[in-house]
Amino acid sequence: MQFDLQIFHKTDGVTRLSLEATDSSDATRQAEARGLSILSVRRQSTWRLGALRARPRFALALFSQELLALLDAGLSLVECLETLAEKEQQPEVKQTLQRVNAQLYEGQPLSRALQQFPGYFPPLYIATVRASEKTGDLSTALGRFVAYQLQMDVVRKKIISASIYPVILLVAGLLVTLFLIGYVVPKFSMVYDQMGRNLPLFSRLLMDLGHNLRDHGLIIFLLTTALFTALGYAISRPATRQRLTQRLWQIPALGTRMKTYQLARFYRTLGMLLQGGTPIVTALHMTADLLPGSLRPRLEEAAGAIREGVSISKAMERHDLTTAVATRLLVVGERTGRMGEMMDRIAGFHDEEMARWVEWFTKLFEPLLMIVIGLIIGAIVVLMYFPIFELAGSIQ
Q1: 263 inside domain
Q2: Do 143 and 177 share a domain, yes or no?
Q3: Domain region containing 104
Q4: Would you tell me the crossing angle of helices 185-195 and 201-215 to the nearest 10 degrees?
């Protein structure tokens, strides 16, 4: 991606410079390597004409699997990264891997080298690598992270696949409704105008709606597009998402399931970090971003209680960060010393529970959605033909 830098040079004074870099930190390092003083760094807008170029997606799970395979084959870490950089097709990703390898040649540990590129390697990944450096078992840590990613992807794919058919059904119903109102209804309206008959109230309202949609379709389309764009922008704001999440959590059944899903992600990630050797308080702070804003203060209070010597199960239960199953398994984990494994089991239990609930909900929601769409389309057809039915009745 491109970055605009405002720099100061001894001879030229304050000037601007454009650089290709993976992130703002990388752009700053490149400029400082040239002996320039950085005043400001700003990423170029991706909405400018001619700059509509998406950042290449870095498949972290695939990278970890390939690195794990090469390490298990007996290659050194430097040789593994060189091999992965050579086979990489995306220039930016290839450049990033080469820079990580250059950091290793300078004697930096892998975690510190990865930390220079936060756009590609998230904090959880870096923490996993850093913990493995203490034990010298990078392969095990990578295997644990790959398994973690696969488990997270399974849950995500289940939810997405369950929502595909209802979305397709909703879009198809909407298109059919728009076709009837915007094209078929005005045709019927012309016939009724020629007949000179007075239409029933609801039929007349439907005909007026069809006329307006046909005559002002472009304006309605632009206004609708602007409305959805504004809604999309509002939802993309963290504060808006937090308020929306709080509203959804107030719905009894849905709110409970959403909280369970968030806690399952939280415990799975926390369990992975604990199994990798990360201290519990550090792991809690690192996983705070996985929880919605309303639960983060509770997590901070729970971390403080654990730091003061309170057991993990009691601290989590006291601050409403567990379920009945989670509390019992946490107690078992404290007794056996396998807290990371127990947290992974908590996540697995609730993931299965969530999958069953999503399956049940979609089986109930799909026929209800079909009924609603059928009633709407049926009402439009009946209102279109209702004057004809009245005319036929009067002739008889």
Answers
A1: yes
A2: no
A3: 60-148
A4: 120
Q: Which residues contact 24 (CB under 8 A, 6 or more apart)?
A: 3, 41, 43
Amino acid at site 356: R
Dig out the tokens for 255 from the structure: 């709110």
Which residues sit opposite 5 in a β-bridge? Answer: 17, 41
Note whether 81 and 223 are same-domain residues.
no
- Determine, yes or no, domain membership for 54: no
- Cβ distance 299 to 319 under 8 Å? yes
> How many other C-beta atoms are found inside a 10 Å radius of the C-beta of residue 187?
11
User: What is the residue whose two structure tokens read 């807008």?
Assistant: 45
Dihedral of alpha carbons 121, 125, 129, 131, sign: positive
How many other CB atoms are found less than 10 A from the CB of residue 164? 10
Predicted TM-score (pTM) of this structure: 0.63
Whether residue 296 is found in the same domain as residue 320: yes
pLDDT in tens, 12-62: 556 666 666 666 776 777 667 666 777 677 776 544 434 434 455 778 888
Instruction: Select from 128, 118, 55 the least CA-distant residue to 92.
Output: 55
Q: What percent of the chain has pLDDT over 70?
A: 86
List, in sequence order, the alpha helices (H) in the chain. 24-33, 60-72, 77-87, 91-105, 110-115, 123-135, 138-179, 185-195, 201-215, 217-236, 238-249, 252-275, 280-286, 296-307, 312-318, 324-336, 339-395
Residue 277's contacts (CB-CB under 8 Å, 6 or more residues apart) are 131, 132, 134, 135
d(CA 148, CA 61): 9
Domain count, the chain: 3
Q: How far apart are CA 367 and CA 390, in angstroms?
A: 33
Question: How many angstroms separate the CA atoms of 182 and 214, rounded?
Answer: 5
β-partners of residue 37 are 8
* Residue 51 belongs to some domain of the structure: no
Domain presence at residue 170: yes
**pLDDT confidence bin for 320, thresholds 50/70/90:** confident
